[in-house]
Amino acid sequence: MTEIIVITLYTVCISLILLMTLGRGYLILSYLNYSKNKINTQTPELTEYPFVTIQLPIYNELYVVDRLIRFCTRMDYPKDRFEIQLLDDSTDETKALVARLVSEKSEQGHLIYHITRDKNIGYKAGALAEGMKSAKGEFIAIFDSDFLPGKDFLKKTIVEFTEDKIGMVQTGWDHLNLDYSLLTKSQAFGLDAHFTIEQTGRNKAGLLINFNGTAGIWRKTCIEDAGGWEHDTLTEDLDLSYRAQLKGWVFKFIEDIRTPAELPVEMGAIKSQQFRWTKGSVETAKKILPEFIQSALPFKQKLFGLLHLLNPFIFVLMFVTGVLSIPLLYIKNQNQQFDTYFNFASIFILGFLIMILFHWITSRSILHRKLTFWEFFKLFPTFCSISLGLSYHNTKAVLEGVIGKKSPFIRTPKFNVRKLKDQFLNNKYLNNRLSPSTFTEILLSVYFLSGIFLAFYYNDYGLLPFHLMLFAGFSLISGYSIAHARAK
């Protein structure tokens, strides 16, 4: 009976993973079709300069706020046609630094304002909502503190609002510190796929996309019509995106415009960011899905919207599949009556092949840093290992989102780290407490090490690559967590 339960649960999980992966397969086809028929045209010149408000939500950004303000004030756009709002919820010396920088830039003729609040209610969403009260712009551009927008950002994005129904234009992200470490390379590898195939594939197939929280520009009336910024989830960007599109607004993603930003270099920061993104997405799904399912959207938009909103559950499926894979290996080699099932189960390798294709196409599509064949096949297993290693941590985030457990918006600390010689361990915003989950991750690495031993014991190597990646992933996650905490 136990064998039946394990096999059934494993089959359900891996079937759902395959279903989600097939959805990505469709996005690959959409992206390839778009790339094949893409016509390179010059960006049209602006004939009018609508007033723009640039919102910069910040919270204790001592190391990067100077750079942020410098890049935003150098925009190649008439000085009298855009304003900058520093939405400052800082509780440290950042606030005084911002006040001085705003005063300096204001004296130079920039329309720049320092907006503070008595209480940090609603975190980033609350700050954006506060800024909306006094925003004069017809369009609202938003940048997180570690982003460095190009001089032509406003000119290149404003021209994309070719129709009144276009409510938001999102641009891609690039990476300031891509080559800093194995962790930054792995994060960039995953983000590139999102900002290449996922966002472009969805957009060109007429599916719903989301604002990524930064490096995008909104039509102000779209934000207002959708109900404004709300802070009842940790992903206010995803929440507002779906509310706006349910109202009939159209979003555009521009792959060729890339705004560079800093990738987290410390494991605690990576974990907190992943937790916020994962849990917030589940909270948004709970909030949006009832109206979304009952809406008049076409079936295809509903189907892929559902896959999009429920995507965080893939971490749960990955984790459960991993845990069950070791007893499954035992069952396979102790019970011959299941041989037919295990022979059939090889079909699930299709999902893995789709993921290889998904990331391979991405790695060959980013013109300024294409990966060679060998570079790709060194990085892909690393990315998979780290993703699997984060599956326990993100499963906890999913479950908290499901049960409705509330948690604060934990900002990702910024380091201003770009080169190998740059250090971050003395950063005042680092948290040196070791998470209790780290000890569970150590135990999980030992658990999956046993799967490697079992492969040689049974002379059965079908699951060996999976167990190698699981062991490597949990070892890397726990190892980096301990090393960074101790160094601090």
Question: Major beta sheet, specifics?
Answer: 7 strands, mixed
Terminal residue distance? 50 Å
Note the overall shape: globular
Q: Which strand order do you get reading across the main beta sheet?
A: 3-2-1-4-6-5-7
Structural classification: alpha/beta
Unreliable stretches: none
Count of DSSP strands: 7
Estimate what percentage of residues fall within beta strands. 5-15%
State the helix count: 17
Write down the secondary-structure element order. HEHEHEHEHEHEHHEHHHHHHHHH
Radius of gyration: 23 Å
> What number is the mean pLDDT?
93
Percentage of helical residues? 55-70%
Describe it for me?
- α2 links the parallel β1 and β2.
- The chain is globular.
- The chain is an alpha/beta fold and 488 residues long.
- It has a seven-stranded mixed β-sheet, with helices on both faces.
- The chain has 17 helices and seven strands.
- α1 packs parallel to α13 and α11 crosses α15.
- Helix content is 56%, strand content 10%.
Short synopsis of the structure:
With 488 residues, this protein is of the alpha/beta class. It has helices spanning 2-37, 65-73, 94-107, 123-132, 153-158, 182-204, 220-225, 236-246, 267-294, 299-309, 313-334, 339-344, 349-363, 373-389, 391-403, 437-458, 464-487, and strands at 52-58, 82-88, 111-116, 139-142, 166-175, 216-219, 250-261.
List the helices and strands and how they pair.
Blueprint: H1 2-37, E1 52-58, H2 65-73, E2 82-88, H3 94-107, E3 111-116, H4 123-132, E4 139-142, H5 153-158, E5 166-175, H6 182-204, E6 216-219, H7 220-225, H8 236-246, E7 250-261, H9 267-294, H10 299-309, H11 313-334, H12 339-344, H13 349-363, H14 373-389, H15 391-403, H16 437-458, H17 464-487
Parallel strand pairs: 1-2, 1-4, 2-3, 5-7
Antiparallel strand pairs: 4-6, 5-6
Helix pairs in contact: 1-6, 1-11, 1-13, 2-3, 6-13, 6-14, 8-9, 9-15, 11-15, 11-16, 14-17, 16-17
